[in-house]
Amino acid sequence: MDIWRIEKELTEQGFRLICGVDEAGRGPLAGPVYAAAVILPFQAQISGLNDSKKLTEKTRDRLFDEIVNVAIDYGVGTADHNEIDEINILQATFLAMNRAIDALKIKPDIALIDGNREPGAKCRSMCIVGGDRKSASIAAASILAKVSRDRYMVEMAVKYPEYDFGKHKGYGTKLHYERLHEFGPSEIHRLSFLKKLYKKPEPTEAKKLGNLGETLASEFLAKKGYKIIDKNFHSPFGEVDIIAQDDDNVIFLEVKIRKNDGYAQAREFVDKDKQGKITATANIWLSLNQTKLQPRFDIIEIYLPNENSEPEIIHIENCF
User: What is the CATH number of the domain that holds 290?
Assistant: First the structure.
């Protein structure tokens, strides 16, 4: 495929300053979405110019420098994690694209936009599906956007070393999920993306007894003056049965219900591994809700021989 075909056709129609626009980073769980706008001299000789996703990191770095040196003009724009959470990733991508176009010193005659959605550019534009494979200008933009974002995430790897951003650049790899499990979200994670991952599962028959325990525990806490904030907050790492507020504390409660007390105490089943899962899930909830309340971890034990008997409820505060 002639990667200059589209630019050639537009040049024959009288367009001179043709700008390619592409984005990078729509999928990651952390960091900004980047976009770049590039105006190249027609048929500029840039060896290996192609869709950034098909190139090695070393080749992208080389092409980045070549594109910057040969371009008539270029601009890079971003939309950060807060903007992504506020207006959604699609609108944030459009915002980054428009910021990239606005960063150009020279106004293009037409902007070639990768994809099938026009971002509301202030200049004439045309959408091209798969444009990073069909247009030299868009391919150049894809490289500038990708390399710029990757370099930013390498900088964030220094600021947040526990997440290893330099390895996965914020994408949802196994390593990234493991670090989220251990540390919860960082300041640059896209919380709206995490909400999609931490949906509550549908209740099953196996949870009926547990649901009964949580109902009894909620009633018990309400009588003690606690305010129930949330229930069954679920993440890939674990679940918190009840989240409640008491004065300046937010309490994450694990509820254990047994039909008799002839075995080990229920609290003994909340071992180090279980505590770690509860803590990781609590960190997710705290990040999503941005509360200033102080966290506390409690256990409620319930002994209920049968549903018609009076339950014995034991509330243990500050368990771990």
Answer: 3.40.1350.10
